[in-house]
Specification:
- It is a single chain.
- Helices cover 58% and strands 13% of the residues.
- The model has no long low-confidence stretch (mean pLDDT 80).
- The two termini are 38 Å apart.
- It is of the alpha+beta class.
- The chain has 2 domains: 147 residues, no CATH class; 123 residues, Gcn5-related N-acetyltransferase (GNAT) (Aminopeptidase).
Length: 275
């Protein structure tokens, strides 16, 4: 209830500020972009949740949860004395903790939800019990034996991928005002320079970029909604305390993204950004 009032106040405050400063158009664009990002995030998470929820149910029907419960009971008996009496709940709890230790956050979430549901059924109350809170603290602490791999990574362009990089670059920047194309001569030099990069998120190639020292020479998203991840990954690659880039003033969508990420505008013909 309190959070509902807080969010309502924040929305009203944003609306008031937009009206007073004449930025209602920017507010509308940001709201639509945020809603689209939320949908993409929800769809992305839905796949992982469905996969691991199904795996948990299959493990339960195969008797694996009982085996996990018997294995972990000596360890968790002191932390979860009430839950230790329920083999199914203990199985889910053990799977949740094990997934967190191995850095499998997507697997830990459905297991933890299932464990809390069983705990609530046993308590017969709508209020969170001490053992539920204890499980939430364990998940929040996110103790890991194997650190989770970094999802977004940068891969240098090679001689074999230089032509693909140049083709994707020219296709993305052809419609951008004042953008320069990648010539055949530059294409041959891409692999040698080490500036041209592919951006990967897991097994998916989401963007491309070019970095020289502390400046982003180019950044383009190859997948919808990947712009922010691409900029952040490339900015982390830049050397020095300041990250700079140029952007055509007519490219309003990119300008809004850089503003949201905290870049400050400079007074240049094509607008300099720095952070």
């Amino acid at each position: 209830m309190v959070m509902g009032w807080i969010w309502t106040g924040m929305v009203l405050l944003a609306l008031g500020a937009a009206v007073l400063t004449g930025q209602t158009g920017a507010l509308t664009a940001a709201a639509l972009e945020g809603a689209a990002s939320a949908i993409r995030l929800a769809l992305g998470l839905a796949g992982a949740l469905c996969l691991w929820s199904g795996a948990a149910k299959a493990l339960e029907r195969a008797g694996g949860m009982r085996a996990l419960a018997r294995l972990a009971r000596p360890v968790f008996r002191r932390l979860f004395p009430q839950t230790a009496q329920d083999e199914t709940a203990m199985g889910y709890l053990t799977a949740n903790v094990a997934a967190n230790l191995l850095g499998l956050g997507n697997a830990a979430t459905p297991m933890g939800i299932a464990a809390v549901r069983r705990m609530q059924q046993r308590s017969g109350s709508a209020r969170a019990t001490d053992e539920m809170c204890r499980l939430i603290v364990l998940n929040t602490a996110s103790i890991q034996l194997l650190p989770a791999p970094e999802a977004v990574r940068l891969v240098p362009v090679t001689e074999k991928t230089a032509a693909d990089w140049a083709r994707e670059y020219n296709a993305r920047f052809r419609a951008v005002p004042a953008a320069e194309s990648c010539s055949p001569a530059e294409e041959r030099a891409l692999a040698a320079g080490g500036e041209a990069l592919w951006i990967w998120d897991g097994a998916e190639r989401i963007g491309l970029g070019r970095v020289r020292g502390g400046e982003l020479l180019a950044v383009a998203a190859l997948q919808p909604g990947a712009g922010e991840r691409c900029v952040r990954a490339l900015a982390a690659q830049c050397a020095g305390p300041e990250v700079r880039l140029t952007c055509a003033a007519e490219n309003e969508r990119a300008m809004r993204l850089y503003d949201r990420l905290g870049f400050s505008r400079g007074a240049e013909e094509r607008v300099w950004f720095s952070i």
